[in-house]
Write a structure and sequence with these properties.
This protein is an alpha+beta fold. The longest helix is centred in the middle third of the chain and has 28 residues. The chain has a single domain, classed as Jelly Rolls, CATH 2.60.120. The protein is built from 10 helices and 14 strands. The two termini are 35 Å apart. The strands form 3 sheets. Strands 1-2-10-7-12-5-4-3 form an 8-stranded mixed beta sheet. It is globular. The structure holds 2-oxoglutaric acid (AKG) and fe (ii) ion. The site of 2-oxoglutaric acid has 11 residues, from β5, β7, β11 and β12. Keywords: Dioxygenase, Iron, Metal-binding, Oxidoreductase. One of its GO terms (molecular function) is dioxygenase activity.
Length: 310
């Protein structure tokens, strides 16, 4: 996969703002997102104490009784609890907003474990706050890579995050074998991490599906529909799916999703003769509302052009 989807190393050196290696990394990220809609982040700052507990607590969360899991509240961005739907019988998910903030983690933990679960709270908060840092860094690098850095602070100030835990039962269990059907995310950026069971596949520019290989410090960073709109269509939302082949293994993954709570303006730096304006400014939340009203399979294709294309 490394030859197909670029791997970008986030080290202290490459992420020190305005060094030569920073500018090079900004450029690499923009190139990767324009060509593939995604890249693999090798995140050196993601220490073992952040990563080791996350899949253990994911298991604990899914082991809770159904009537507890459904307490996870829906939000403007996502459903709280994703049950085993008939079309995706092996998949189950739980989302919660604002996990990068300790109070939101405490609230969610208390909802799931009224008598407390400090281990879950600490693991979710440490994970989400570390990945929020990565998301902010990538966003800044994308903005600066396009010479639109001056808009980054206001974008970041109006960014909300959702942490999603996903569990995929073993292939064949309960008579099902459907996982995540191919789709684009409705996010600005999505950052995905998985346990040692492969399953995530992304479509490259040449229409080929490539499998993301699990590794404790690797993250798949993908552009969502909102990033495609913001970039005036220069970045394509990443088309991806999940297909678990490894028998007898349960797959857990953790997604970290960013959404803009305000209006997304298309920077004038991204519009020129070679790139005429393709998108109108839009509210990310209104786009989500529009998307939720769409029925059927068209939902799986990127809808941003339909929503606010010029
Ligand atoms: O489980 C994964 O790796 C992918 C999850 C995904 O595509 C999603 O939640 O939108
Ligand atoms: Fe997705």
């Amino acid at each position: 996969m490394a030859s197909k989807v670029p791997v970008i190393v986030f080290s202290e050196e490459s992420t020190g703002p305005r060094t030569k290696s920073w500018m090079r990394a900004c450029d690499e990220i923009v190139q990767a997102l324009e060509h593939h809609g995604c890249f693999i982040a090798e995140y050196e700052g993601f220490r073992p104490e952040l990563r080791d507990p996350i899949f253990g607590v994911a298991k604990e969360l899914f082991d809770l009784p159904h009537e507890t899991k459904v307490r996870s509240p829906d939000s403007s961005y996502s459903k709280g609890y994703i049950p085993h739907y008939p079309g995706t019988p092996l998949l189950e998910g739980l989302n919660f907003d604002g996990a990068e903030k300790l109070d939101a983690c405490e609230k969610f933990t208390a909802l799931m474990w009224p008598s407390g679960n400090a281990r879950f709270c600490k693991a979710a908060y440490s994970y989400a706050s570390a990945i929020a840092k990565l998301e902010k860094l990538v966003t800044r690098m994308v903005f600066e890579g396009y010479g639109a850095g001056k808009y980054c602070d206001s974008h970041t100030e109006s960014t909300a995050y959702v942490l999603r835990f996903l569990k995929y039962k073993k292939p064949g269990e309960d008579g099902g074998n459907a996982y995540q059907i191919a789709h684009t995310d409705k996010t600005f950026l999505s950052i995905l991490h998985q346990n040692n069971v492969r399953g995530l596949e992304v479509m490259t520019k040449d229409g080929e599906w490539v499998t993301f290989e699990p590794s404790p410090s690797s993250f798949m960073v993908m552009a969502g529909d909102a990033c495609m709109g913001w970039s005036n269509g220069r970045i394509k939302a990443c088309y991806h799916k999940v297909d678990v082949q490894e028998e007898r293994l349960v797959r857990y993954s953790v997604g970290f999703f960013s959404y803009n709570t305000g209006k997304i303006e298309i920077p004038k730096e991204l519009i020129d003769q070679d790139h005429p304006q393709q998108f109108k400014s839009f509210s990310h939340l209104d786009f989500l509302r529009f998307y939720h009203k769409i029925d059927g399979h068209t939902k799986l294709q990127s809808q941003i052009k339909v929503y606010c294309g010029v």
